[in-house]
Amino acid sequence: MEALTQRGFQVRCDNLLDLSVEDNVSDITVCLGVLNHVSAPYPAFAELVRITKPGGHIYLAVYNRWKPYYYLAHKLTY
């Protein structure tokens, strides 16, 4: 995160169900591998939409259960 901050980006780690960010502040909102782990995915996604500016972009990555990574990272570790 420090490397991104040094390059001029504002980076935050926060609770996806209760983001401490004002409305419409993000040009690009990135959520990597989190949405499929929260108890309420629809309100969590609504938070991403809320903080993203109109015309902004949301990069959302979720696990694909049919890919080898999901199997190796989740099924074999439990």
Q: SSE layout and pairings?
A:
Blueprint: H1 2-6, E1 26-32, H2 41-51, E2 52-61, H3 68-75
Parallel strand pairs: 1-2
Structural features, described:
This protein is of the alpha+beta class. Helix content is 31%, strand content 22%. The chain contains 3 helices and 2 strands, in the order αβαβα. It has a two-stranded parallel sheet. α2 links the parallel β1 and β2. The longest helix has 11 residues. The radius of gyration is 14 Å and the shape is globular. The mean pLDDT is 85.
* Rg on CA atoms, Å: 14 Å
Strand content: 15-25%
Estimate the helix proportion, in percent: 25-40%
What is the molecular shape? globular
**N-to-C SSE series?**
HEHEH
The secondary-structure class comes to alpha+beta
Strands of the largest sheet, in order across it? 1-2
Largest sheet: 2 strands, parallel
Count of alpha and pi helical runs: 3
* Number of DSSP strand runs: 2
Give the rounded overall mean pLDDT: 85
Question: Any low-confidence stretches, pLDDT <50, length ≥5?
Answer: none
Distance, first to last CA: 29 Å
Keywords:
single chain; 78 residues; alpha+beta; two-stranded parallel ribbon; 3 helices; 31% helix
Summed up:
The chain is an alpha+beta fold.
